[in-house]
Amino acid sequence: MYFRIRKEVELRLMMEAVSVKLGVEMSALRFHFDEKRIKANQTPNELELEDEFVIDVFVFQLGGCSFCHRR
């Protein structure tokens, strides 16, 4: 996905748009730039993001496998 956002605007707008486009609640998504988690209230200026930057989006999963818990 490609988004254009002003550098002083909170990234929440982009995050909400990704959530809608993927059909996944925003609370289930994790956004990372340069291996660091991004908060919704941060701006591109705060993160010192340049033009054409890439943000990684992950779906949060809780739990593990039953094999891991065998005794």
TrEMBL record:
InterPro entries: Rad60/SUMO-like_dom (IPR022617), Ubiquitin-like_dom (IPR000626), Ubiquitin-like_domsf (IPR029071). Residues 10-64 form the Ubiquitin-like domain. It comes from Microthlaspi erraticum. Gene3D superfamilies: Phosphatidylinositol 3-kinase Catalytic Subunit, Chain A, domain 1. This is Ubiquitin-like domain-containing protein.
